[in-house]
């Protein structure tokens, strides 16, 4: 099974910046969550199991009592879980275009009521939970649009994202050939169920795990992200002021691929350096 593309791209891009890695004196560890790569599937996966898997891996590899954690898109739900279950192990965290869960109880209805993504996720969760075989049949039908059509769809990606998609492999795990592999389908379904199901905690009520300001937490978001709305992400960081919010003005959901962004993320996370280019623009309200 192929590894999550977003993490692969992050690692691959940072490999081209070896001088920065050497300068910071760091190394990057990529791990396969349950069901990905060579990791065994876990049908009973949960938010807590994701955090404990990370903690166990850190201990087995003896990387130290604290470590930094970077989560990208869907992988960010594991980062939220670590902030809740193992905050004492974290030296700092960064989430890049992190998914949000419309079931988080602290979201006001007025903020999410008209968001069409909420309805799409609700129906997808219903099928994934009650009719997984029907969902499997549906996503693997030959007459449905291919993932290449999805990738070019402006409903999901802005212009800059679509340009990026011309230069990267895309989303190999979402091809019909891959989805026909039951283990791939089950892994993606399990991810979806955990990420968008009922959480055991409310992320918007988490306490600051870095009260001494020796470490930091960050969210990086594209202002034009069509998968995760920037206005909702802003609300998240308003509720959690200990998370530093960075915004790419013309960025979509694929900001992790943008030139220079990974360097800015590492410098903010490890050195506390703020790149003013990613300071969020003020909201303008017209009456």
From TrEMBL:
<dbReference type="InterPro" id="IPR029058">
    <property type="entry name" value="AB_hydrolase_fold"/>
</dbReference>
<protein>
    <recommendedName>
        <fullName>AB hydrolase-1 domain-containing protein</fullName>
    </recommendedName>
</protein>
<dbReference type="InterPro" id="IPR000073">
    <property type="entry name" value="AB_hydrolase_1"/>
</dbReference>
<dbReference type="Pfam" id="PF12697">
    <property type="entry name" value="Abhydrolase_6"/>
</dbReference>
<feature type="domain" description="AB hydrolase-1">
    <location>
        <begin position="28"/>
        <end position="257"/>
    </location>
</feature>
